[in-house]
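Data's thin. Show one?
=====
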Amino acid sequence: MSVAAPYDGHRYVSPVVIQRFAGPADPSVPGFYSGAEIWVMEDDGSWLRRVRSAAARHLDHPTLRPDREHVVYSEFDDPSQYVHGSAILFEEHLYSGERKPLRTVPGGAIHHNTISPVDQALSYVVSGPHGHDQVAEVDGALLTVENRRGGHQLIANGISVPGGLLVQCEVVPRTCPRRIAVGIFEWSSRSFRPLTRTPAMHRRPAVSPRGTAIVWQSNERAAVTDDIHIAAIDGSQHRLLTCGDAMDGHPWFARDGRSVFFESNRSGQWEIYKLDVESGAVMQLTSDPTYVSTRPRC
């Protein structure tokens, strides 16, 4: 079983939760790595501490509730099976360590959860015998995008926005090289409206707290590395936030919308960084060669 870490007494003002691996892993490669833990820190990198250790299991995609005191994450029983096994969505209090099952599907896995900064709606993917469904809980309604039943698309990494979900969409069966688009799945038309149109892997989108801008990672510029991209919510005003030889990924807006957190191997190891959207200034928040730090959320 996973184990809650002792609380050190610090009350977080602007917490950021991250996922950390105490061993080798490459977050740039789509896939699964066992043994991740949940950690929390202030948005300047201070007061970094473990929330829950993984033991023999795997803790995945931590996301903070709006109260800044509860973290939501998946716990996989058997990491070797990944989404083909079982995973429960848990909610845990950052200070007391008290946790409870939030969502569960018998014989299935609930994973890749997000809590939208725009409307605070919870979204996640449910994997089971019939495939992978993108689910959103909006205003008390359970809204589902059924994937793979028609064999044409795989929609995932959904975040609730007004009228739909900000998602990544991939044609299945997959092409080689892979091609993924970022866009909006609209509830009214039950259709996907792409915001990216170039043949590249555009993925892992996030939306600003006011719902006016999006960020995502893409290998559009260089096929072997990803940069962080930003655009208006309609896809206009597109520009690069990062551009270099490193792999940059899993972007997430800060609460004020002025900065973006992301993971990068630019130092030679995977760490968490914070980038000022206007100036482009980058600040490294974590630095520990014994861990792979990834998936920042606030």
